[in-house]
Amino acid sequence: xxxxSIIVLIGVTFCQSGxxxxxxxxxxxxPEDIKSVLVMTLKDKKGNSLESQLIxxxxxxxxxxxxxxxxxxxxxGISLYKIxxxxxxxxxxxxxxxxxxxxxxxxxxxxxxxxxxxxxxxDLYNRSLDDFTYEIESINDSIYILTSFPKENxxxxxxxxxxxxxxxxxxxxxxxxxxxxxxxxxxxEIKYTNINGFxxxxxxxxxxxxxxxxxxxxxxxxxxxxxxxxxxxxxxNLKRIPIK
Length: 244
Hints:
The chain is mostly beta strands. It has one helix at residues 18-26, and strands at 7-9, 33-43, 49-59, 64-71, 79-83, 91-96, 101-104, 132-139, 143-150, 158-166, 172-179, 184-195, 198-208, 214-224.
């Protein structure tokens, strides 16, 4: 994920603006492409859980992504791909085998839940640097808090995101997202792993504050720089589940 313009400093004199921090995060070195297996566990407030497994291919800092559900059996074959474009004409489509239908995810539907999880389709997109304005705060010289406000033309379902990160590496380890009426709606906790010098997300825990429903995402069997072609990210491949 990329998070992130103009800045108001809160409480301290700070040598970098929020935009500077956001730009550094956006420009962080990343692999050319990533293959991984993703385990997604949904858990309700009573402790009941449902586990799904997916295969994920990403490229160009996740601006291109395609995922396939491999389990449970009733979800096997469901797939999604997205391509983010600098001109703002992003594309996202899902293949729904039960209906034998490819569904285009329009901007009007981006606030909908992705497969009953606590992630919306909007959450699956990167946060483009210049789509936000920022405020930054420092805590005891080692932790930064970055608040990202979506610009009006983004038509976001959120009013802001507050992200906590270590000053040493600018890796977000905790985040709060607020609804359009400025109410806390969900929290995220994020863990990383380092593979060949790249800091990659290994685990994400998302919690809906209102329903107390949780989504746990665990990335495993991570493979980087395997040479995924741009042609992989096409709707014709939604029906073709790879071995990995």
